[in-house]
Amino acid sequence: MKKLLAAALMIAAGSAMANNGAGCGVGSSIFNGQKGVAPQVLAVTTNGTLMNTVAITFGTSGCTQDGVVSSSWKISMYIDGSRVALARDAAAGQGESLDALASVMGVKAEDRAEFAAAIKSNFGTVFANDNVAANLKEVLAANERLSGYAALI
């Protein structure tokens, strides 16, 4: 029994860490803002135990019914893994890595030019430190047309 419990906790911890959070649901609401492995494992376990289907179906506990599954950790991983190329393209306002970032974020075709221009004009802010994802989120949030994309980071 102890081995089974340990295995379940390791799987839950791995899931929580891989997703960089527990997502939506009652567990996420209860442990909101708490950091570390233990609160994430407890949130994931609570969400699994209390069947998130209800929260998703009715749009409660931080779940939405818009049909969008977001993966902010993928965006952060892309930014971290492509930082040098992304900085080069951001300074130019165009390029493969900037296009790839827009694609990973789901930026619509009609918003891509403004997306690239916003990053170029705020290059010093976005790449001011190692927290590029958070800086980018602030820049996008300040732009009326692009503010919806900030929520994805």
Task: Throw out a few tags for this protein.
elongated; 2 domains; single chain; 153 residues; mainly alpha
Low-confidence stretches: 4-20
> What value does the Rg take, in angstroms?
18 Å
Approximately how much helix is present in the residues? 55-70%
Approximate strand percentage: under 5%
Give the overall pLDDT as a whole number.
Answer: 75
How would you characterize the largest beta sheet? Answer: none
Structural class: mainly alpha
Total count of domains: 2
Amino- and carboxy-terminal Cα gap: 39 Å
Element-level helix/strand string: HHHHHHHHHHH
Task: Note the overall shape.
Answer: elongated
Q: How many strand elements?
A: 0
Please tally the helical runs, counting DSSP H or I stretches of 4 or more residues.
11
Structure characterization notes:
- The protein has eleven helices and no strands.
- With 153 residues, it is mostly helical.
- The protein is elongated, with a radius of gyration of 18 Å.
- 66% of the residues lie in helices and 0% in strands.
- It folds into two domains: 2-58, no CATH class; 72-150, no CATH class.
- The model is unreliable at 4-20 (pLDDT under 50).
- The chain starts with a helix and ends with a helix.
- Helix 1 (2-18) packs across helix 3 and helix 6 (83-92) packs across helix 7.
- The longest helix has 17 residues, at 2-18.
